[in-house]
Amino acid sequence: MTDTPHLDALRLDAQAALAPRLGWLVFAVALLPRLVHVWFLRDSPLTGQYVPDVSVYLYLAQKMLAGGFFFVHPMLMSPGYSLFITPILATLGPNVPALVLLAALLDAGSAVLCAGLATRIAPAGLEQRAGLITGLLYALCGPLLFNALLPLAEGPAIFCLLLGVTLLFRSPGGGNLRPYLGGLLFGLGCLLRPNMAPAALLLCLAWSLSGAGVPRCPSSTRTRLHASARFLLAMLLALLPFMAHNLLTEGRPTPFGLQGGLTFHMANFPGASGAGDSLPGITHTPYLEALEAQAEASRRVGRQLSLAESDSYWMSEGWRFFREQPGQAAAHLVKKSLLLLNEHGRDPTADIDFCRQFSPVPGLLALPVSLCFALGAVGLWRRAGKTPEAAALAVALLWGAASVLMFLVTPRYRTVLLPLVLCFAGCAVAELPALLRLSTRQGLVPALLFLTVLGLGNIPLSALVDTNSAAEEYARLGRYQFLTGHQPEARAAIDAALALSAKEQATPELELLQAMRQASLALEKAAATGRSATTNP
Predict the structure, then answer these.
(1) DSSP assignment string, 310-371
(2) What is the mean pLDDT of residues 114-136?
(3) C-beta separation of 31 from 241 below 8 A
(4) What are 534's strand-pairing partners?
(5) In the prediction, which pLDDT does 532 show?
(6) Which of 62, 47, 60 is nearest to 93 (CA)?
(7) 183-214: per-residue pLDDT in tens?
(8) 3-state secondary structure (DSSP) of residue 303
């Protein structure tokens, strides 16, 4: 007997899928600039351990390979990226250039996945056009390329999350493995970017319950609920080992690192920038800051706290800001909303403008982020709820934006949102002829929405946060070059940092830079003396 609803669902799946030739085109267009970027970075600090967190992730991956992590080592940081890079560490050693190359390949694949998702939310008859436009927008978005190809979690997280959602959407009926594989991949993506974990339940509910009466959705609510249940079960199975780890080591069954509370407080206190600020007694050194936060929380409470208790303490400190100063907290959230949309943003991890000296590619791919958000807002207005997939992606995007707003708003952390934004932006561009034919009254809302978001995104960054970060960037580069033995480059960076800080009062950090500069001169002189003695015995 023929299963008509199942066949209809399969037929719809085939119609909504991106045409293979367009998929390969998007992959090629996305891969080329990413490989060129990797080539420029081959001998730069960005393929060393210059980027914060890289050394910690490599250290934790080594612990995993040696059997000294699970149920032994405290989970101070979310372990997803360390788990992800263990195969490369096991075969090639701590090879950061290989991690960047892998990120480039995955990100080109993410462009295709993003294009495929756009075809599922596009207006009927515009699926392939919307998919191609979305894929090209992804391929040519320089800020997205820059952050996705840092040797950090963002690029792999985007790939795992997009592939997980794609497999869920492509499981319209029957007993197939797609929702299970999708759930496992989405779970891995959440280990890489923990703020997206609650989005799984929300997008499953939106996808399952919003298809009633939609012509392009022949699969039943019950079928989608069953697929969602399998997806969520597989995701839970992916997270269970890490939940058991934290339960046994720290007494809390969370699958994520025990520093979310500290991050939340660093983003929310009176006078906070929202982009990451150091707290008294706590440095901005990855991994070490969690231990310092534990010691500071223990000092304030008057007893030794566990990591889980310290995490809870800092989370409560962040919420106290909202309880005791609601007006200031509301203004703070407004400012962070503007930071989220801002064309530039402030990022203590790696500044895209500063890093142009290592590769010009992100700067040449100058698709403005503010334009992406403006087009995405129009697409969201036009398409959210038109198909179950559109409703699901809209809910996931809104949750992701809200979670970033509650924590640190930096270009790096908002990167995971950009593919979802681009799905709706591509649909808006594909619909542009129809939008231009709207009457004045019908076109007023999308026009105002576009102009408002675009205008808010181009507010000068200096009006929102302190933008004098060049001195810090040069100081960090100088320290890295000094420690890696590149003494002329170290002195050049240190001199630039000192020149930019010339008007500031003497601080221990500036004194350390001066001492490092003298040590660099001494090391180079000693090396030259050694070479002279070798050549002239």
Answers:
(1) HHHHHHHHHHHHHHH-HHHHHHHHHHHHHHHH-SS---SS--TTGGGGT-SHHHHSB--HHH
(2) 97
(3) no
(4) none
(5) 59
(6) 62
(7) 999 999 999 999 999 999 999 999 999 865 55
(8) coil
